[in-house]
Structures are given as C-alpha cells and as structure tokens.
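Researcher: Please translate sequence to structure tokens.
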Amino acid sequence: MAPQSFFTPGLFEFLRDLTANNRKPWFEANRERYEQVVREPAQRFIVAFSPYLKRLSRHFVADPRPNGGSMFRIYRDLRFSRDKHPYKTHLGIQFRHIDARNAHTPSFYLHLDPDEVFTAVGLWHPDGGTARRIREHIVEDGSGWKRAVRSADFQDRFEMTGERLKRFPQGFDPEHPLIEDLKWKDFTAVSPLSESDVVRRGFLERFAELSRVGAPLNRWLCRSLELSY
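Model: Translation complete:
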C-alpha cells in the first residue's frame, strides 16, 4: 500500500488562526473547520497507527474517541490557570499504556504546534513516588538504563529532555556514576520534527519508525513500574 498523508497545512493554519482568535465565538464559528482539518485527520491517524503500535507492544492503546481517547481535548482546564484562553493552540496525541489512569504514564506522543513539532517517548511529570521508583531502578539496573537511552540509534534520533533537580535526589549517593540521570524529574526523550515532515506522505511510517527507536525507553520504564510491556 502506498504511503498516505493524514495532516495538511490547513491544520497548522487553523492553529495559527486559533492562537490569534482564542475566544469561544470564533471557535464556534470555525468548529466545522476544526473538525475537518484537526480532529478527523487525527482520528484517522490514530486508527492507522494501531497496527504499528501492536507490533511494539500490545499493552499500549490507540483510541480514536474524541473524548477520553488518544487525542487530547482542545479545551483547556481553566480552573487553576491565570491564562483564561479557552482553547489549546496545539494538537497532542498520546498512545498510553493500557493500565494508565491518567496521562502521566509511559507513552508514545506526537505534538503538533506551529511553533514546535516533535515526537516523544517516556514519562512526563511523574509524581514523587513514581519518580523515586524509577530512580531506584536506575540504580538497580544501570546497564539496562544505559542500553535504553545510550544506544547509537536512540541518541541519533532522540534527546533526553525535561526538568531536572538542581541537587542530587535525597536518599541517593551523590557520587553514583549515573547521578546526572538520577536528577531527571521527567524521564522523556524528544525527537524534533517540522511542519513539512508532518504533512508529507509517509509521515505515519516515519512516526512508527521513531516510535520503534524510542520503544526501549518505554519498555525499561514499564519494567521499573512493574507494568506489562
């Protein structure tokens, strides 16, 4: 089967216009446009990625539902935010672990924003207990951790990124050879992309290949959290 295209330049045009007009009346007037160039292509992409995801792990889910599925809602949670703009100005698609109760578990992620396009693997913003379990597993299985994030293939495509502790984590040896890894607060790796990459035929296959290269990090994180992979 010939490679398909799912997303068009219209997606990024819509997100740019939404950034300039982030108000409910504008969005309601452009809801059909949103559905045509953002939501529906995302749902098709999620469905098409499902077979690739199953080859990586049958414990991660591709769910095309517009609410509660792999695609993040366009609506922002304003309850605790000073920024009262009602809509997100990016599209996020997250293929989560089947045992996930929230977004903060190992996942394969795609971020489409006019200012920043990337794919990511790993676990973003774990709570304190989860982060400690991961750090303890780094100490217990340092060689496995290094195989996951230090391979030439992984480092050629991905870069570990996120927030870090300024000092060594409490309860860990400050002289440990992996102390810089133990300082991570996020256990996430990112591979940058461009708008032209996303709208090109074959992007699904490229995303699948990046997910394959990043999968060792998710596999290792699942082991550290006693999740099936």
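Researcher: Any highlights?
Model: The beta strands are 91-96, 107-113, 116-123, 159-161, 187-193.
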